[in-house]
């Protein structure tokens, strides 16, 4: 918001203005146009130079007596140009992003196919494809309108990981430990790299792209990602790369004027000890973590990085859970004002999940996602959603329903 106030101050330093800022969609432009009457080139220029934190222009209604005026025709033209400007951009990997694409990220490279050994872990290694196909079936997405990432390369990964750690992934026993599938230790590493690590690198690239999309479009969803047990120095819990840490550090590096602070809202059933270890004592990053205290990883040192910690008992149900999430998130956003919100939306909180051991219904998960998006959007904070954990086959359908619900409520739109 500071940029918008600065614009007004530069134009009318001696005027007393009442300002009402709206993060409006294009359908609201006509109502605003009828409100404005004359033309002021300085305001137009400043509005074009300044973008809101959500990637949408702020439409400023000047409510005092005619100290600034702007023509409807000129404002309409500038809004149209600004809409196209913010919806089309070239990402930091050099790929042009069209305004026709949804800020929903997916690649067919996401799925893990490791000679059938992936079935030895409870995780649904095809969850991501099922989500995409469900959204495609509902005519929300298509191959042409989904945002496709590129694989995270060594240069990108080294922004977070040490070379020593990346080299350790060349040993099959190391990957077996991270994935918690002992049989992987006997598989040639080149197969592991192609069938497991490469899909993970694509999902990491997807998380980074989602971060950039959120800055330009106000929101984004990576159908994959959310590897919250991996830190820069160590993997674990099926998480080989620290995509959450990388996403935030990427934005800090390449968008330093727009992203100076970040909030992680981790609502996976497990403690997000990876990003917590990475951002220990980092005042630029606020971590809210709601997790089952009785399950993996029980990482006490990492808990010291959590600014808002909610430790749940096993089999916590909808009413208590949703009340805690809403109250604690409201309090966190009142205390800390982030430039980006990274939402780790694990569905292993679902009743019957063998690893999460909570008792949240499908409707509870959909409502949870709705609450988080609503809190971010009403504050115009760009939000990135990552799908993270979820160990039942039906979680793909629930995630799909939740995304469709967000669209139905106009919390997300193309």
From TrEMBL:
Pfam families: Hist_deacetyl
Keywords: Chromatin regulator, Hydrolase, Nucleus, Repressor, Transcription, Transcription regulation
Compartments where found: Nucleus
Domain of life (superkingdom): Eukaryota
Predominant location category: nucleus
Protein family according to the UniProt entry: Belongs to the histone deacetylase family.
Keyword Zinc-finger in annotation: no
Originating species: Bemisia tabaci
Keyword Nucleus: yes
Record-annotated Histone deacetylase domain positions: 121-398
Name of the protein in question: Histone deacetylase 11
Function, in words: Responsible for the deacetylation of lysine residues on the N-terminal part of the core histones (H2A, H2B, H3 and H4). Histone deacetylation gives a tag for epigenetic repression and plays an important role in transcriptional regulation, cell cycle progression and developmental events. Histone deacetylases act via the formation of large multiprotein complexes.
Native organism taxonomy: Eukaryota, Metazoa, Ecdysozoa, Arthropoda, Hexapoda
Reactions it catalyzes: N(6)-acetyl-L-lysyl-[histone] + H2O = L-lysyl-[histone] + acetate
GO cellular component terms listed in the entry, alphabetical order: histone deacetylase complex
One Gene Ontology term from the biological process aspect of the record: epigenetic regulation of gene expression
EC number: 3.5.1.98
Assembly information from the UniProt record: Interacts with HDAC6.
Sample GO molecular function, one term: histone deacetylase activity, hydrolytic mechanism
